[in-house]
Fold:
Amino acid sequence: MIRTIAFDADDTLWHNETYYREAEALFCEMLAPYHDAEWIRQRLTETEMGNLAHFGYGIKSFTLSMIETAVELSEGRITGHEVQRIIRLGRDMLAHPVEPLSEVQATLEALQRRYELLVITKGDLLDQESKLARSGLGHYFSGLEVVSEKDEAAYRAILARRKIDPAEFLMVGNSVKSDILPVVAMGGQAVYVPYATTWVHEHVADADESAFTTLEHVGLLSAWLEIH
Structure:
């Protein structure tokens, strides 16, 4: 019997990846005098991947990666004013209104009466706390867990600290790599709710889809729980 349901935050509770792609497009426009957009995107992604071990996830890390990429691709010719523009891109992302996905609030309203609800996400602690507060959804959850990586060890540590049996735990998220496979591996249940756009780092080539449930949108979760 499921007693605790945890939700991923970005692109599960509210829109997020869309804003990264919008910032990326503006970044490519800025560097258009140096390279074509496809090459800029490729180099930015490679820089992001290389910086994860140093800066972690989130907008601040993304902003630093944009600056590093701009310096590299311009061969140091990028100006201080252009660096300021990149920093403003990052600040605008941090200040962007938090827009919950359709049917999220109604689903949380229904589930909070029967389950303990948590948010388990990765990224920058300050940013994730701010987004949860600004989303208007915070009162539905009994806790927020922000981790540096969402792997099996991280989930096990959270459940052990909160005295949650993995067999009574369900994770809901938009990333098979981060939200689904680690939870299934430790004996929990998982529901995959795809988002329109998925960050390349979260792509999984081969996953046993019989090991988890896929729902078209989060509004179907309550009905699924009624029969499981």
